[in-house]
Structure formats: structure tokens, C-alpha cells
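Deliverable D4.2, example record:
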Amino acid sequence: MRSEPLSLSLSLPGLDGRPLPGRATRIMYKTTDSNSQPAAVTGAYIEPSARWSGSGPRPLVVVAPGTMGQGNQCSASLGLENVVAFGDSTLSIGVENLSMYQLLSKGIAVAVTDYIGLGTTDRVHTYVNRIDEGHAVLDAARAVRSLPGTSVTVDSPTGLYGFSQGGGAVGAALELQPTYAPDVPVRASYVGAAPADLAAVTADIDGTELVGAIGWALNGFVQSDPSLQPLLGNHLNFIGKAVLKDLSTRCIWDAMFTYSYQRTKTWTKNGQSVAAFLAAEPKFRAFIEQQRIGTQKPTGIVRVATGVHDNLVQHAQARQLALDWCQRGGNVVYAPISGINGPSPMLNHVHSLLADQGTAVTWLSDRLNGTPEVSNCATASQQP
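Output generated by the structure prediction step:
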């Protein structure tokens, strides 16, 4: 829809005059939301300065960000421009930059989506909405192919990369691609710590450092389906309503500072947890079940990684995603990641990201270069 130059806050001048790690462009592109309506999404594209040393045309990887928050100032594309930003009592940190810069260093072109509602002002970000996120990821690849002056062509192999919320977005995109975007040639993808079962994840993050994500999910649910608003209002007390309103403008870091370790039972009229009342309401239960990932065969080869001690985006449900895809004939490489098992669920979660990131980027680069990999579905159920 539109584009403009984007200044990378972490950039160096190259010897040949090209900036390192690349030249960035801010983009706005069209996608389709879960109600089959058009939506505008922001994001960014980075043309790498490094040469692609692999075979064939330069590949493109679409990075689906992990949880950033729900305020427009939290978007990943803004994190490229300002690695650390303060404003309106919020703190935003460009945590996705590391994976993007690693991909760029290998000569891989990178696009990043801000998702629907995160970076635009027409609606609240529809956090963990399977269709919204999957469509935004796939349409980012389409948008880059129509962007002038890039080295990406229709023959460029495409990869998808995401961890946590991003892992869920990539997982959704892999299931939606055959019918929604068959023109996007997804060859290989990385799905890390995906929240494939939102009911399980909601129960697990209650009372942790990331309890604010429950508020973001609820805000997103009613944005996508306004008929859920009266049901939500029936359960939330004045504290819960104030928390959700506040969280709609917050980034992950300030939400953690403000709400860490709260229990959602303090948000409700009868002292039930949010997970409990979502399970008790048939309409909410049906909506959440529609968000489940693992019900369709994914396209391309996919590396499903999860920390065996991850008790934030719980290991068991992420592992189940790999097994579900295997049962549906998916070309899956399941990778359980050993990591720390400490008292902080957030640290347990983030450690698996950091421990696996280099391996994941190299794995994805090799697949985009045409190096074959064999699925380990035959032994996946025997692994932790």
C-alpha cells in the first residue's frame, strides 16, 4: 500500500557504501482478517548488504515477532528504528532484532510483520488470533515481492521464523498457506515455543511474569468478535476492566513491571480465574478452540522447538503440536531444547529461545539453500 525508508538504529556504514546489515524500508500492506475483511498491516523489509552464498536466488524469511504488547509503540518495525524507546509510561525493546540480524548476516532478505492492529490505529491488536496472524505473515511475503528495488523474486524460496507468539503465527501460516496463499513458496520454517493450545497456555501463565498476556488475548478476542464483549463484562469486576483497558496501551516490559505475578481471580466478580470462566462459557470455549494449531498438515519442512523446562508457554502443548503435525503427515523435525529449570517461568522460556536461536537460524538457512533434512516423526513421541 505504501513504503518509506526506515533508519536502523543498529547500523554501520559498509566499505562499499552500503549500510550494514542492510537497507531497511517501512511498509504498509493489505491483509485479510478473521472476519474476511481487509485490514492494513505495517512492517518492515531489510535488503541485506551481505551476499547470498547459497545456490539459487536470494531467499526471503518472514519473521513473526514474539509477544511485544498491544500498544502501537510496541511494534517490531519500530523496534528496528529505536531498539529501546520510552514514552507515555511504556518501555519498548526491539527484542526481535537479534534473529533478524543473524539472518541478514547470511545474505537472507528479511521481512517482519507488526500483525493486525499493532502499528495501526484502526483497531486493537488481535493478539494470538490464529487467522489474523497467519494471514499477516503470508501477506508480508507477498508485499515484499511487489516492493520495487529488492533482490527478492517470485523464485526466491521463502522461510518463516517465529518464537512464542511468533511461533504460533508461523504455525498458523503453515496450515493456512495451501488455501490462502498457494503463491507463496514456503520451503522451510522454524516454530519455536508455539502457544498451540490457548486454553492450556492461559492457565499456565496466570500468576507469572506474563500474566498481562491474558489481558491482551481477551482484548483481541472481543476485537475479533464483539459479541463476546457482554459475556466478558459479566465476569470482570472493575479491577479487571481497568486492567484490560490499561494493557491495551502497554508493551511487554512495562506490563511485566506493573502486573507480574498477579492472579486473574482478582480481575473477576466471583473470584474465578480467567481460564476457569473461559472454559465455563461455551461461546468463549468455542472461540478459543478455533485458535488451536495442529489440526491441519503444515506446508514445507518445519522445525518445531520447545524448551523441556518451559513452563510459561508450556512444553507439553508445544510438543503436542509436533506430534499432531506428524500424525497429519507433516514434514516435521521435532527439537526438544534442554535449558534452565529455575523459579522464573519467563527466564525458563527466554533461555530456550537464546539457547536455540543460532541453531535455528543455521537450520533454516541450510534448508533454504536446498540442503535436505529428514523428518524425525518416527521417533518424536519417544523424545521428551
